[in-house]
Amino acid sequence: MSSSILSKKSTPDSLGRIQHITPENAGWKYIGFDVYLLKSGQTVSFSTQDREYCLVLVSGLASVKTTKENYLKIGKRMSPFERIPPYSVYVPHHDEIKVTAETDIELAVCSAPGFGELPARLISPEDVDTEHRGKGRNQRYVQNILPDYKQADSLLVVEVYTDEGNTSSYPSHKHDRNAFPDETLLEETYYHRFDPQQGFCMQRVYTDDRSLDECVAAYDKDVVKVPKGYHPVATIAGYNNYYLNVMAGPLRQWRFTWEKDHNWINSDAYPIKK
Questions:
Q1: d(CA 138, CA 265)
Q2: Where are the domains of the chain?
């Protein structure tokens, strides 16, 4: 049975692309998300048109050229599981991009509507704020590439590491209402990676009225789409999880609502003492 929220990785196409999510094929309005696996020396080009882009070097070294900028041999980590912030490049709407792989690379291309006058810029590891969240078996480590307090028109981009046996994006929360400052409407994608590679996690996406209620097993390089509702992740023993999140909506603020039944996980009552 096919899933409306799971995009399985595909065999690389002629461009090296293994994921291709657009507003049209996702059935939503804002997020585009592609992943490319390029061999050293390969190139790929984009015209941003009416969208802004954030290129994230998940692994490997690359050169990125835009109309006005040229970032040569950027990158540092050769695997996302090195747990150091990546190099990324923000590119505004109505620009041109050429990416050249200096080594084999894994490139995530995040996009959303662009409308401002921001210039292209390099987002170096030093520009990425990091933080630990949660407690007990709900701990994770976060690398904020393009949070809502950094400049962009629509995009929010973040990396999250969750150790084996832990939950993430939990307690269950949602951001599917235009109700600022309490909640904002944000579509979201999860690009999952695992160490060791054969691992998987369980992710559920569901609404209060259960009009959407799906639970899927996401494997390495799969994408889970969250058009609305709650979206917790549970890792499996033996496999550490990395995911790259993209969010976008009509207002570029991250405001969410906890699911009442599980909000107690945020309180001093958790972890339960034995």
A1: 9
A2: 6-266
Question: How buried is 41 (Cβ within 10 angstroms: 0-12 exposed, 13-18 middle, 19+ buried)?
Answer: exposed
Residue type at 127 in one-letter notation: D
Extract the tokens encoding 245.
């999140």
Specify the pTM.
0.97
Span 142-153, pLDDT tens digits: 999 999 999 999
Per DSSP, 25 falls in state H
- How far is residue 16's CA from residue 107's CA, in Å, rounded to a whole number? 10
Question: Taking the chain, what is the end-to-end CA distance rounded to the nearest angstrom?
Answer: 41
Which tokens hold the place of 223?
Answer: 């994408």
Chain centroid to Cα 199, Å, comes to 19
Distance CA 266, CA 161 (A): 19
Q: CATH homologous superfamily of domain 6-266?
A: Jelly Rolls (2.60.120.10)
